[in-house]
Write a structure and sequence with these properties.
Shape of chain A: elongated
Strand order of the largest sheet of chain A: 2-1-3-4-5-11
Order of helices and strands of chain A: HHHHEHEHEHEEHEHEHEHEHEHEEH
Strand content of chain A: 15-25%
Structural class of chain A: alpha/beta
Oligomer: homodimer
Chain lengths: 337, 337
Amino acid sequence: MKDIAAHLGVSIAVVSYVMSGKKGRVSSEMEAKINKAAKELGYQPNLIARSLKSGKTSTLGLIVADISNPFFAHIARIIEDTAKQHGYTVIFGSSDESVEKSQDLIDTFLNRQVDGLIIAPPAGTEAQVKMLQKKKMPFVLIDRYFPDIPTDNIRIDNFGAGYAAADCLLKSGRRSIALISYRSGMEHIKERERGYRQALIDHGVAPQDEWQIKASYQRLESEVREGLARLQPGVGVDAILFSTNSLAIEGLKQLNRMGLRIPDDLGVVSFDESDAFDLFYVPITHIRQSLPDMGMEAVGLLLRHIKDKKHKTEEIVVGSDLVSGASCGAVATKMVG
Amino acid sequence: MKDIAAHLGVSIAVVSYVMSGKKGRVSSEMEAKINKAAKELGYQPNLIARSLKSGKTSTLGLIVADISNPFFAHIARIIEDTAKQHGYTVIFGSSDESVEKSQDLIDTFLNRQVDGLIIAPPAGTEAQVKMLQKKKMPFVLIDRYFPDIPTDNIRIDNFGAGYAAADCLLKSGRRSIALISYRSGMEHIKERERGYRQALIDHGVAPQDEWQIKASYQRLESEVREGLARLQPGVGVDAILFSTNSLAIEGLKQLNRMGLRIPDDLGVVSFDESDAFDLFYVPITHIRQSLPDMGMEAVGLLLRHIKDKKHKTEEIVVGSDLVSGASCGAVATKMVG
DNA sequence: TTGCCCATGTTAAACGTTTAACATACCTTA
DNA sequence: TAAGGTATGTTAAACGTTTAACATGGGCAA
């Protein structure tokens, strides 16, 4: 801008007026001259300076458990696109379900003056969420949420989805159904568990504690292995419900290794999507969450909150549906394609 | 900082000196007082202001074809981690293999004053790359590269990998081997094609033009379908080599639909990794690129280039290997696990 | 005692924008 | 013709840092 002003022998202010598109502030001849000079000199605005002045960065921070997990990668893509449509750029970080990394990322993003945050919060980060609220930093939670802390959040009907998943297995005649989930105790997982239990009860099956296997994010492989050993699938239980895609992928690998056939020896249903579910020798029935809706709603809600700081908190439930493969068991009737 | 200075009745400068860790510039009592006040008042540095002054943002821009593609999502994760270790944050964007979107992202990132860029460039973006060079903006290319433009870049030995992939099929007794790849004409794909052809020739098989199917990124499904129809797999060709994971996923879905059995009716090898390859009814033999190396080297090289603008360009070839499944055809001898 | 140096703190300019407040000249209108 | 309005440009302060240059006072050597 300085160069343009000097080149034309005018003040920096008038250049700024035309560059920032203020109408009616400068004559049209001057505007033309300045635009011409700007093009010639290849002017590009310095967004950092702009941000410093305006206090806005047009940047959103995205914190997920792991960007390389297809579930989050897919959401990230939607968020990126939606944010761009509104002139925002996204910076991201992976928390690995760690409280410390999450705090670290939040601090980093705050220091970088992001305008808002989209977070899939790890278990145990209630304090971080409250801190954001105290600082009046706009944010929305996705996928997970804290029932005791009212916040903007986007999620599916986890109870209903858990119910539908178990229901599918029960309707196929399965009676002893295991649930493999994360140990974290996050509410969305608990809801899925509740849905699963209710479905069992509604079908006259008493849920057994030993059917519920918990694995930790950090030691997925070994704990899934131990869990499966305890379950004795095919003998002890006749079906398994996985509450996330990563659990299912790991579980299916091990079931393959154990030589179990699905759905003959064992019925299987999972949450989330994966190319592997579609291409498995029997397509895996799974709960599909509407990731486009989740991402778009998250950005939309966040931007509304950024623009109107007094915005009351909203909880948005987006769609999910059961995609029928043949892994439940009733091959003939369930196959969809 | 202003608050701290006022609170202590000192100048802003001395606060700045201790906050930015300048040693020997301020007495230790003063330093202690200021640190205490900073903690009490919850001071957090404004990185935007810092950046404006220093001209450095400690931010890297990452441009990939699609962050929701597991290949790029995985690289993104490595890059994120490596960048964080060095105090850098990553902003990302997906080009969808579009020249315009790529230009758009580059412009956005430059305006945001990123310190450097990591780019998987779409076909036809030579001019963009040259523009970056003219502006002396540090960047490194990953996965793809332009043979006519010397740039920092990280890639695998695409010729060797293509050769190894085809070799595996040939050694299993396949003679008519199709290659399905992207139409883009990017050098890394061409190299894979050259490797494939050379392997055929070395095994005394004359490559047929009609064995080479090209699909465009934007119309993947229909063009793969048409390509497969022309190939008549199982009749016209006895094996298919896919040059990327997305092509393979799409292709395998359609082969399933066509009722073809692998490896009995058709041998298959793919590039890249996927959970679906491991969990397919027969594990898919594939070329695994060392993503950790690619990501870490990319960040390392970029930071070297940022620190030393006179750094001469480097081309780094990272490892790749053939992960044997049973999809080549020689089930008995090839199975690995 | 004088003169210097050193340690420590302050002042002010700068980074690239934005924008309120001011200045100027011209045009109306009565 | 005078008063007021309008159109257009300039000045300068501000955003939150950093840092060169300057100021001050005390300690030390000769």
